[in-house]
Recover the amino acids of this structure.
């Protein structure tokens, strides 16, 4: 279900009032009860067409879990410039972690999808990828563990896991 900015009470998105820091969850109006400041969700979205995803005040790193949560929610994502972290005990060795960018129109849907990981997992049960499947593009038979056709690179059909 897509995010509705007019929904009341306000959903728990981990947002805090920009004036006083009061949590903006469960409110019956778009006004902070602590300081009286009105808020608009758009003010919480970073600038750009694919803004950097920030969840609970922290920049989201592109991990396999986050990528999968966004894929299941049908939210495209891009890698933004990475954070470089030096590995302790090594000289000139670094590990780069990419940040996540999502479409501006789906920003809060992405926040909800990523927060669902912390709150006990993704709503949709994981698909059983044990059944082999046939590529619709070239007709090649592929193992159930493959998400793309090894022959032509075609995508696995959405209903392939249901044909077990």
């Amino acid at each position: 279900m897509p995010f509705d900015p007019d929904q009341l009470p306000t959903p728990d998105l981990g947002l805090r009032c920009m004036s006083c820091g009061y949590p903006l969850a469960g409110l019956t109006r778009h006004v902070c009860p602590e300081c009286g400041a009105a808020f608009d969700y758009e003010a919480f979205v970073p600038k750009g067409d694919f803004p950097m995803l920030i969840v609970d005040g922290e920049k989201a790193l592109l991990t396999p879990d986050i990528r999968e949560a966004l894929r299941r929610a049908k939210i495209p994502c891009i890698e933004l410039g990475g954070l470089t972290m030096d590995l302790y005990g090594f000289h000139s060795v670094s590990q780069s972690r990419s940040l996540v960018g999502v479409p501006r129109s789906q920003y809060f849907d992405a926040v909800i999808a990523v927060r669902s990981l912390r709150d006990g997992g993704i709503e949709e049960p994981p698909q059983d990828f044990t059944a082999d499947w046939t590529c619709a593009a070239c007709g090649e038979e592929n193992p159930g563990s493959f998400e793309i056709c090894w022959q032509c690179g075609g995508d696995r059909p959405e209903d392939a896991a249901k044909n077990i």
Q: What stands out?
A: Strands lie at 54-55, 58-59, 78-86, 94-101, 133-134, 141-142. Residues 46-118 form one domain. The chain has a mean pLDDT of 83.
